[in-house]
Design brief:
It comes from Rubinisphaera italica. Pfam families: Bac_DnaA, Bac_DnaA_C. This is Chromosomal replication initiator protein DnaA. Keywords: ATP-binding, Cytoplasm, DNA replication, DNA-binding, Lipid-binding, Nucleotide-binding. Helix content is about 55%, strand content about 10%. By secondary structure, the protein is α/β, with parallel strands linked by helices. The protein folds into 4 domains: about 140 residues, DnaA, N-terminal domain (GMP Synthetase, Chain A, domain 3); about 160 residues, 3-Layer(aba) Sandwich (Rossmann fold), CATH 3.40.50.300; about 70 residues, Helicase, Ruva Protein, domain 3; about 100 residues, Chromosomal Replication Initiator Protein Dnaa, Chain: A, CATH 1.10.1750.10. The strands form 3 sheets. Strands 2-1-8-9-10-7-11 form a 7-stranded mixed β-sheet, with helices on both faces. A 4-stranded mixed β-sheet has the order 5-4-3-6. It has a two-stranded antiparallel sheet with strand order 12-13. The chain binds adenosine-5'-triphosphate. The site of adenosine-5'-triphosphate has 20 residues, from helix 8 and helix 15.
Length: about 500
């Protein structure tokens, strides 16, 4: 699968080249054949979009209800076809996409006599919604024979190129103005300082937005430069393919010739020793020739505990900068700007309600606004606080992630590099006592488990051991004491926030 990739032609064109469209169309055709014409028409045609990001094929649908229904019904055939089109690593996700909702409502107004369409329209959102992280990059939409005569609608369904987010649309506040300023500097003077520039932070708080903003701005500032954006996973897949096909020289030529390399989700490399060396050589070579490298991950490089030392040192040799969840004022501004952009009439107290309720993750915040917009679209009413409460009630509940003790154990083991069976054993070695104490503390914070239940899960310890672990951990947080991970000490607060962010992602 090709990465999102843009370069100039010899004529100096500044257009992005998207190679996703043929894959998306092939996916649609093959799916139609596999599930049959009538099911395809009923569930996909005129009401879905297909977007490809690396190995992830996203089917956009019109409502949260449909995401659940479609994954239940079509996950298996869609994955089978995606793998045939994109390779074995391909995955399929069903997500809400405003373009699919638009398609559906346009289709409905065209063929309102069709009862089949009506039955789907009744499922339009009253509850959960989520804007795709890469929602700006709709690649191709399902074709619509019934609409083909309608020029206006056909225009809207035409395949679009990926649109990168803009740095100017990024709302800044205390937790993110420095990372944003760094993005501006790097986009103006790539390769000159902060190389590599490494962003880290929790889920849905703008890392990809900043990467896309840099991509876009470099392309504007330096139209004939080659800028490549992809995920670490896509890099790994290319590398594996090149190894398999014995085409490593071509692979290296391609990746080491770019002027700016932008790689998202670097944490993927943590568990993939096989790609680390190649990735390390790639960025080393680029940086040594003054090319810019920009990276993003969910953790600080030192918390990627399975990384080769030369790679984490390389990450640390530029600028490592943390993005924090936006504070209330920043969230209010994000809501204001987004509702303005959608021309959504909404009262100030409804804005406050959304900004207060959806506090951890901007993607969820934007998803909430999209739900309000659908309500407005359907009712033509101004969105006030009562409507906002009503519409977002389910979504608010869905955003509360259920955390299990096994999630906590997994996250702690991953961070400290210890084995799960050791963490839950009766062993008392020093390298296990701190991670275990932390895991017990998090189990109390995030699950409903009682002290004795937690104790039982950690080597049959009694409830007083768990109570003292919790007390000691609280003390460490209050006094801002440090915890050792491999060779380095971290503040207890930083470790707990990192783990909690991962628990929220799942
Ligand atoms: N400060 C901000 N101002 C405006 N929009 C924002 C801001 N932060 C995030 N967003 C928007 O929120 C959505 C999610 O952001 P993004 O995809 O960049 O998150 P992320 O940190 O990369 O998440 P993940 O860890 O899941 O990859 C995007 O639509 C993005 O444009």
């Amino acid at each position: 699968m090709p990465p999102e990739w843009s370069h100039s032609s010899n004529e100096g064109s500044t257009q992005s080249i998207s190679t996703d469209r043929p894959y998306a169309e092939k996916f649609q055709q093959s799916l139609r054949q596999l599930i049959g014409e009538s099911r395809y028409q009923k569930w996909f045609q005129n009401r879905s979009t297909v977007t490809i990001h690396g190995d992830v094929l996203v089917v956009g649908v019109a409502s949260p209800f449909l995401t659940k229904w479609m994954s239940k019904e079509f996950q298996q055939p869609a994955t089978q076809i995606a793998r045939e089109c994109l390779g074995l690593a391909a995955q399929v996700r069903f997500e809400v996409d405003a373009a699919a909702a638009e398609q559906l409502s346009a289709f409905q107004s065209q063929v309102s006599s069709s009862s089949e369409v009506k039955s789907v329209v009744t499922t339009l959102p009253h509850s959960a919604n989520e804007e795709s992280k890469d929602g700006s990059s709709v690649t191709t939409a399902a074709t619509l024979p019934a609409m083909k005569k309608n020029q206006k609608i056909r225009g809207r369904l035409a395949p679009r190129r990926r649109r990168f987010a803009s740095l100017n649309d990024f709302v800044t506040g205390p937790g993110n103005h420095v990372p944003h300023a760094m993005a501006k500097i790097v986009a103006e003077h790539p390769g000159e300082q902060y190389n590599p520039l490494y962003y880290y932070g929790g889920v849905g708080i703008g890392k990809t937005h900043l990467l896309e903003g840099i991509h876009r701005e470099v392309r504007q500032n330096y139209p004939d430069w080659q800028v490549m954006s992809l995920t670490a996973e896509a890099f790994g897949n290319y590398y594996t393919k090149a190894l398999y096909e014995k085409s490593l020289p071509a692979f290296r030529k391609k990746f080491r010739a770019v002027d700016v390399l932008i790689v998202d989700d670097i944490d993927f490399l943590d568990a993939k020793k096989g790609f680390q060396e190649e990735f390390c050589h790639t960025i080393q070579e680029l940086i040594s020739y003054g090319r810019q490298v920009v990276l993003a991950a969910d953790r600080h490089p030192r918390m990627l505990t399975h990384l080769r030392p030369e790679l984490s040192t390389r990450f640390l040799s530029g600028l490592v900068t943390r993005l924090e969840s936006p504070d209330l004022e920043t969230r209010r501004e994000i809501v204001r700007r987004h509702t303005d952009k959608l021309s959504l009439p909404v009262t100030d107290d409804a804005i406050d309600f959304v900004a207060t309720k959806f506090s951890r993750n901007v993607r969820e915040l934007i998803g909430a606004i999209n739900c309000l917009q659908t309500y407005h679209h359907m009712t033509k009413r101004m969105v006030g606080i009562t409507a906002a409460r009503e519409i977002l009630r389910d979504l608010e509940r869905d955003c509360l992630k259920i955390v299990r003790t096994s999630d906590i154990q997994h996250a702690v083991c991953n961070l400290f590099g210890v084995q799960p069976e050791d963490l839950i054993s009766a062993k008392r070695s020093r390298n296990l006592s701190q991670p275990r104490m932390l895991a017990m503390y998090l189990s109390r914070q995030w699950t409903q488990a009682a002290y004795h239940e937690i104790g039982k899960q950690y080597g049959g310890r009694n409830h007083s051991t768990v109570m003292s672990a919790e007390k000691r951990m609280k003390q460490m947080l209050e006094r801002n004491e440090s915890i050792q991970i491999s060779t380095r000490k971290w503040s207890a607060q930083e470790i707990v926030s990192t783990l909690e962010e991962q628990l929220q992602v799942g």
